[in-house]
Amino acid sequence: MKLLVTGASGLIGGRLIRHLLDLGGVEVRAASRSTRDWPQGVEGCVLRADDPSTLSGACRGVDGVINLSSMPERECASDPHGALRKNAGGTLALLSAAAAAGVRRFVQVSTSK
């Protein structure tokens, strides 16, 4: 099984990737907003919500998506319209790209205080 993990460079994303690697039998494609050095065995990719080609490319060939990507809480509080645009709009764009690529599983993770 191959999984795309967005928000992979965050606290939860990094821990999730390590856990998936420890499970074995899972291939991981880690997505973030910039290039990173990922652990051995992790394929990295850069996602830009404003560039649909990065979304479709990231979703191509994966069995599932775990979306951890979102604007930080502090920024959401100071810019609620931006938060709606980035968090909800970004999730919708990723979900659409995943559906177009034939991805059958999509897990949305969200935090709120």
What are the key terms here?
4 helices; 5 strands; alpha/beta; 5-stranded parallel sheet; single chain; 21% strand
Nutshell version of this structure?
This protein has helices spanning 11-23, 52-59, 73-78, 80-100; strands at 2-6, 27-32, 42-46, 64-67, 105-108. It is α/β, with parallel strands linked by helices and 113 residues long. Strand 1 (2-6), helix 1 and strand 2 (27-32) form a beta-alpha-beta unit.
Q: Could you give a short account of the major beta sheet?
A: 5 strands, parallel
Separate helix tally: 4
What is the CA-CA span between the terminal residues?
33 Å
Strand/helix succession: EHEEHEHHE
Mean pLDDT metric: 91
Helix percentage: 40-55%
Shape: globular
Poorly predicted sequence stretches spanning 5 or more consecutive residues: none
What's the Cα radius of gyration?
14 Å
Strand order of the largest sheet: 3-2-1-4-5
Count of DSSP strands = 5
Question: Which structural class do the helices and strands define?
Answer: alpha/beta
Hey, roughly how much beta strand do the residues contain?
15-25%
